[in-house]
Design a protein that fits this description.
InterPro entries: AAA+_ATPase, ABC_ATPase_HisP-typ, ABC_transporter-like_ATP-bd, MetN_ABC_transporter-like, P-loop_NTPase. The protein contains 9 helices and 10 strands. The chain binds adenosine-5'-diphosphate and magnesium ion.
Length: about 240
């Protein structure tokens, strides 16, 4: 369902993503691991059009963008609509309540009537266990709760794939599991997910595929049993030995 071919992205003359190919099948969970600065965030940002690749093809659910040609703003918007993204720093709108944060896109982008948007928003808040907090402001939530709202907000737009960029890295340790649990539930429901994370236990449990990035290339990828327990490449072994 997601096909990436020859993806390339440079900042000035630094090539950060170097000719990446990757296929992601529907309903699968792909975990990306790799050292800091290896291009993981840039890769995710390319997938949802926050960065414009210099070259390559991204195909998501029938929409194909070929960056070797001119890509229109409309194509970028279409790409963004197919992808939901959750960042390390939750980035909720501070002046809006939880429910207002969630329905904002439904009203302004999808043009749904407010009543309908609220219905969808409440259902999603129930899913992430925060319906009771719908009228709270972000400042009244814990980091873990904010991140669960951020997930609900991304889901509200009904994306084809959810992209997570280190969603638990900024959290106090005791708040990490509540966010991972919501992500696990999503995976079990069949959501297609691409997750950059350092949570190896989670990756081992949930990932169908682990991708090891280094210096803008995929060094190796495969099921967690292979990448974590029987990596083929020296660089993968070295990285894993440093983090475990
Ligand atoms: P990771 O998420 O794996 O830590 P990033 O994708 O954030 O890596 O960054 C990869 C490289 O690209 C780094 O060297 C970083 O400094 C550089 N980079 C990322 N974003 C920008 C940007 N907007 N402008 C210039 N350089 C950037
Ligand atoms: Mg990053």
């Amino acid at each position: 369902m997601i096909k990436i071919r020859g993806l390339q992205k440079s900042f000035h003359d630094q090539e950060v993503i170097k000719n990446i190919d990757l296929d992601i099948s529907p309903g699968s969970v792909v975990v990306i691991i790799g050292p800091s600065g290896s291009g993981k965030s840039t890769f995710l940002r390319c997938l949802n059009g926050l960065e414009i690749p210099n070259n390559g093809i991204i195909e998501i659910d029938g929409l194909q963008l070929d960056f070797s040609k001119k890509v229109t703003q409309k194509q970028i918007i279409d790409l963004r609509r197919r992808t939901g993204m959750v960042f390390q720093n939750y980035a909720l709108f501070p002046h809006l309540t939880v429910i207002e944060n969630i329905i904002e896109g439904l009203i302004t982008v999808k043009k749904l009537p407010k009543i309908e948007a609220i219905k969808i928003g409440e259902k999603l808040l129930e899913k992430v266990g925060l319906l009771t907090h719908k009228d709270y402001y972000p400042s009244q939530l814990s980091g873990g709760q904010e991140q669960r709202v951020a997930i609900a907000r991304a889901l509200a737009m009904d994306p084809k794939v959810m992209l997570f960029d280190e969603p638990t890295s900024a959290l106090d340790p005791e708040l990490v599991n509540e966010v991972l649990k919501v992500m696990k539930d999503l995976a079990n429901e069949g959501m297609t997910m691409v997750i950059v994370t350092h949570e190896m236990k989670f990756a081992e449990e949930v990932a169908n595929e682990v991708v090891f990035f280094d210096e803008g290339v995929i060094i190796e990828h495969g099921p967690p049993s292979l990448i974590f327990h029987n990596p083929k490449k020296e660089r993968t072994k070295k990285f894993l030995s440093l983090i475990q």
